[in-house]
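User: Need the bound-state model for zinc ion:
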Amino acid sequence: MTKAYQCIHCGMIEYSGETPKNVDCKMAALHQWHQIAIMGTSIYECSRCFAKVKAEKLPNFPSCPEGGEHSWHHLGEIGPNRFECRRCNDIVMTDKYPQDSPCPLKGPHAWEKV
Ligand SMILES: [Zn+2]
Ligand SMILES: [Zn+2]
Ligand SMILES: [Zn+2]
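Assistant: Bound-state model below.
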């Protein structure tokens, strides 16, 4: 079973069957991985650290790298359509127009099909 891990220091997401190697963290000497989800086809984004994760259901929310807990928002299901936010230039691939969720540049993401 593939799981999603996030490093509490640098926020990086890795998908792996077991805890990833802890070398080469850019924010600390070693990555410190937390398992946050079972990998799935739903895309969630945290409105604090803006990590995106492919999960089967709402990811866990211990320890957001930005402090406190993650605040996950469901963007949609993985799909063939590419959407770009006009504000922050974030890109997601979903089956239909992504759901409203907070943009790092204030307000909601402004998704446009590209
Ligand atoms: Zn790290
Ligand atoms: Zn977060
Ligand atoms: Zn945005």
